Amino acid sequence: MDPTLCRSLVLTFLLVIVSQFGCAAPPPPRTLYQDPITAIRLYKDDHSNTGHDHPAHVSPEQMTRVLGGLRVVPRTGFIGSLITGQAQANPAFSSAEIQALAPKLSRALTEAKPDELVTFYRRFSDAGVGLAITSGGLFAQGDYLIVILANDRTLPTDGMNQNMVTDFDPIDSPLVPISRTSFRVEFASPSAVVPAEKRPSWPYIDEGRILTIDLQRLASEPKPSPVPPAP
């Protein structure tokens, strides 16, 4: 056989092997619910290590308390704090959003596998803001519920100030923050938050947007006032 032809056949064979085994794409997410403004999906979690405690039972009532306790705090920076004072913490979800998401996220945890995490995506639109995105994910580990809030009513164009060349809609990557400097997350019942050094290890691009909630401790806390409806 001609040496050149032989080399070509070998290279072709190697390319086929690499394409089939060396660059395998991750499995597609499992969509549990989707409508024009909301998507609940299960994604394979490459950081699950020995596995999350899934399937997990977090009741809709517990999920309502978790979502209702999430607060977003603007990252105004040092100069902004001097001008405006301490940044105001605002509810991450309106009462209507909590009512829509809590039962779906509760059900999603009962269907998640140990190597999966639950993600949520929701569009928000009004005449004053236009289209904005709230998205993130969560998983259970023992009595802990780990919550990631990647975006909270974030405009798809907000990332264009941070080296993005176009607007970005994270419907297919709900854990990716559009803007990495806009806010951080707090919880209305600080005693129910597990300190960073004690929570399960799970790497994320922004430590300020991930919280670990102790569900048992949260259950012992008095119920907060209802979240006001969105303006």
Major β-sheet annotation: 6 strands, antiparallel
Mean pLDDT: 85
Number of helices: 5
Share of residues in helices: 25-40%
Structural write-up:
With 231 residues, the chain is α+β, with helices and mostly antiparallel strands. It has one domain. The protein contains five helices and nine strands; from the N terminus they run αββαβαβαβββββα. It has a six-stranded antiparallel sheet with strand order 1-2-5-6-7-9. α2 packs across α4. It is globular and about 40 Å long. The N terminus is likely disordered.
Helix and strand layout, with pairings?
Elements: H1 3-22, E1 30-34, E2 38-44, H2 60-69, E3 70-74, H3 77-84, E4 90-91, H4 95-111, E5 116-126, E6 130-141, E7 144-154, E8 183-187, E9 210-214, H5 215-220
Antiparallel strand pairs: 1-2, 2-5, 3-4, 3-8, 5-6, 6-7, 7-9
Helix pairs in contact: 2-4
In a nutshell, what does this entry contain?
The protein is built from 5 helices and 9 strands, in the order αββαβαβαβββββα. It has 231 residues and is α+β, with helices and mostly antiparallel strands.
Please name the defining characteristics of this protein.
231 residues; alpha+beta; six-stranded antiparallel beta sheet; 5 helices; 9 strands; 26% helix; globular
